[in-house]
Amino acid sequence: MTTFPSFGAETSGSEVAAAFSEQVRGKHVLVVGVSPGSLGEHMAEAIASHKPELLLLASRSLEKINTVISQIRTKEASKNVEIRAINLDLSSLESVRTAAQEINSLTPKLDVVINNAAINVPDRQLTKDGLEMHFATNHIGLFLLTNLLLPKIEEAAKATEKKGATRIVNVTSAGHRLSPIRFSDYNFERTELPVDERPPPGLPLSIVHPDKPYSSFLGYAQSKTANILFSVSLTEKLKGKGIVSYSVHPGSIWTGLSRNLDEEGQSMIKQTSKVWKNGDQGAATALVAALDPSLDEPQGAYMSDCQLAQAAEFAIDGKVAERLWHLSEKLVGQDFIL
Ligand SMILES: NC(=O)c1ccc[n+]([C@@H]2O[C@H](COP(=O)([O-])OP(=O)(O)OC[C@H]3O[C@@H](n4cnc5c(N)ncnc54)[C@H](OP(=O)(O)O)[C@@H]3O)[C@@H](O)[C@H]2O)c1
């Protein structure tokens, strides 16, 4: 249950942060994926207005983060907040390790982590670590980063009496429904897949083509399914320590996310929703997931329009989540036994 059943698609992140101002005060918060015009910018702005003790902003362009910080500083309520920018390229395991070290050196605890960064690219690309670009950036990089920050997240949980107030939020998408995890082909090299790894039937040829293993929609969808399964695993492994993870669909917001898609891709995205939110509204669900003290789901959960919602079955199955955890450990070359 959330505190405000009246919050919904039109609720803004500023309203949510104001409603949970007490939950922001004195907290150490990390937002990952922050650029002008992005949802991360709106999340950072809303949080900064309510006296966090420390706001850490990590993204792949320090220049863009600094533009956001300058904007935050123009507001009376947030001009004195301590904000630090961290350079992080989630598509590189080396960069993730360096950034995690920096974040760990900047704070003794992390009360809230919002894993918001993602990309959506048209062509199949492999990272220098040999992973498909969506899977690497939108899931594997965040998996490694979060695990490397866990000691600081655990410190925050120890310091608070309210179990479940320490939160890890994974920003996913309703688009996850287009693909389960392709355990046998996470890099999109094959057209033949086991039944439980195939996209749901009935999708158009532009998304699922019998001769083409890759489409940007499937690449993005697999990574967004991974975000939800990651939350399932985190809650299962950490709830005993007072840490809970939620995955959230922010709604449809015209940000920079689709800027790399061609005209056809952009037009397909435009048809995915009848309701388009502004950036502040797009930040709202993640902030409910991060701050609402009434949220108390022992299984963790998926949220949309500021309320608990139902994700695809393949994205919430505990056994699949555990399988993804092991695959992710293998791909980052490190085990995390929580
Ligand atoms: N907008 C929507 O309609 C919508 C719908 C469903 C879900 N979402 C989810 O909402 C979240 C935020 O997306 P958005 O719409 O705000 O998109 P956005 O404007 O493109 O913002 C994404 C942020 O992630 C950063 N980022 C991208 N690649 C990175 C990397 N390799 N390392 C570190 N940071 C990286 C981007 O930096 P750069 O500016 O440098 O690229 C940017 O700051 C994503 O998880 C997305 O999947 C959005």
UniProtKB/TrEMBL annotation:
<dbReference type="InterPro" id="IPR002347">
    <property type="entry name" value="SDR_fam"/>
</dbReference>
<keyword id="KW-0560">Oxidoreductase</keyword>
<dbReference type="InterPro" id="IPR036291">
    <property type="entry name" value="NAD(P)-bd_dom_sf"/>
</dbReference>
<comment type="similarity">
    <text>Belongs to the short-chain dehydrogenases/reductases (SDR) family.</text>
</comment>
<dbReference type="Pfam" id="PF00106">
    <property type="entry name" value="adh_short"/>
</dbReference>
<dbReference type="GO" id="GO:0016491">
    <property type="term" value="F:oxidoreductase activity"/>
</dbReference>
<protein>
    <submittedName>
        <fullName>NAD(P)-binding protein</fullName>
    </submittedName>
</protein>
